[in-house]
Amino acid sequence: MTNMIILGPQGCGKGTQAKKISKELDIPHISTGDIFRELRKEDSELGRKVKNLIDEGNFVPDDVTIEIVKDRLKKKDCKDGFILDGFPRNLFQAKSINEVINIDYVFDIEIPHDVSVHRLSGRRTCSNKGCGAIYNIYLEPKSKEERICDKCGSNLFQRMDDQKEAIEKRLRTYHTETEPMMEFYKLKSNLVVLDGTATIDEVFEEIMNAIL
Ligand code: AMP
Q: Relative to the CA of 88, which ligand 1 atom is closest?
């Protein structure tokens, strides 16, 4: 059983690493960002609320977020472990989840501010939900045509929250709300800090070495 959390500023590659870990260890990758992006499409009061919050780069309220995560972790597929990506985002969320479940490892992938901004502002996502491929106009993987997905031919788009103002806001919130939470995990001594400017494979190898 390996219960893991992966953290780091936006653009540090935590989603990429979480996907690789999930595949390697056959445990679910639970991204609160992905859960909220799905909810955002729903024509309901909660869907509309989440849409406004996400698009402006604000947090979804703690009570909603914590409830959703607790419910998700109760599902059968989490029995051998899970990798949580994008949660917790503040000390309150960290303490709430700590009360109900043991966390074996917390990975914090660090990158400088300007690297975050560069990576996020270049990110383009496939509009086809079944595909969801992610490219970058500045970095690899680049699509052959700037606006078209190589894999399925659908249009690529820039997430509202990957636009300049929202990026700056999300990074500010990361520094004020999420970074102070690291102390909590440092004291529990299950925090592993990684250099997110290394290659995807190097970061992944470090994670695997820490687990095995
Ligand atoms: P992400 O893709 O992880 O950057 O998440 C996208 C957006 O979803 C964030 O900007 C927040 O609006 C929302 N979100 C994701 N995770 C959380 C969380 N743990 N607490 C509050 N809001 C969250």
A: 19
Other CB atoms within 10 A of residue 88 CB: 27
Cβ proximity of 91 and 188 under 8 Å: no
Q: Distance between CA 179 and CA 153 in Å, rounded?
A: 39
Backbone angles phi, psi at 24, to 5 degrees: -65, -45
Q: How many angstroms separate the alpha carbon of residue 10 from the centre of ligand 1?
A: 10
Report how far Cα 72 is from the mean position of its chain's Cα atoms. 16
The whole-angstrom separation of Cα 54 and Cα 37 is 8
- What the chain holds in terms of domains, given with CATH numbers, is 2-113+168-211 (3.40.50.300)
> What pLDDT, in 10s, does the model give residues 105-132?
999 999 999 999 999 999 999 999 889 8
Each residue's pLDDT tens digit, 85-103: 999 999 999 999 999 999 9
Atom nearest to 31 CA in ligand 1: 3
Q: Between β-strands 134-136 and 105-110, what pairing exists: parallel, antiparallel or unpaired?
A: unpaired
Active-site residue, selected from the candidate residues 14, 20, 40, 124:
14
